[in-house]
């Protein structure tokens, strides 16, 4: 069974759709430029409504330690997911928080995959995400996918997850093609940036369950 993270949740309705549909993880974004950014109060309200068997993952872009600590407390996070964060700092934050730590590796070509090896000993899980343009304000959540065939024959040295442009229509193929143990979707489950669709969340989780 493939695990599923529904990321960028900002409403109780979206949270309920994820939980009721069988998501194993939900993602709370703490990054001000994102349309999915949560306030600490918003994160606390969602955490209060989330059952503990669904793991709450905080999503950050090279955060300062005050933001990280306040978000962990507000969202009662089980794990942190770091974007654009160097291996040494990732390891430092992992040690400081004591939480399961994911790191996003942006992928466009095969050479990008080798960057995952730099995080051995620093992160607990690698999230392979599509590389966004250098000028993009956001490191993810833009509906961009990478060529899944790049993962063919790649030796995974850490637990990993697949992200980038996943939606109800393509997730079964993504799992079949890559064997991903965990899939992570955000913009592919929305009607507009930051506006999650209960129907799309439900359809996505049904597609994963049927894969």
TrEMBL record:
Reactions this protein catalyses: N-(5-phospho-beta-D-ribosyl)anthranilate = 1-(2-carboxyphenylamino)-1-deoxy-D-ribulose 5-phosphate
Gene giving rise to this polypeptide: trpF
Annotated ranges, domain N-(5'phosphoribosyl) anthranilate isomerase (PRAI): 4-207
Keyword annotations of the record: Amino-acid biosynthesis, Aromatic amino acid biosynthesis, Isomerase, Tryptophan biosynthesis
HAMAP family in UniProt: PRAI
Pathway where this protein functions: Amino-acid biosynthesis; L-tryptophan biosynthesis; L-tryptophan from chorismate: step 3/5
GO terms (BP aspect): L-tryptophan biosynthetic process
Protein name: N-(5'-phosphoribosyl)anthranilate isomerase
Pfam families named in the record: PRAI
UniProt similarity note: Belongs to the TrpF family.
Enzyme Commission number: 5.3.1.24
Gene Ontology molecular functions: phosphoribosylanthranilate isomerase activity
Domain of life: Bacteria
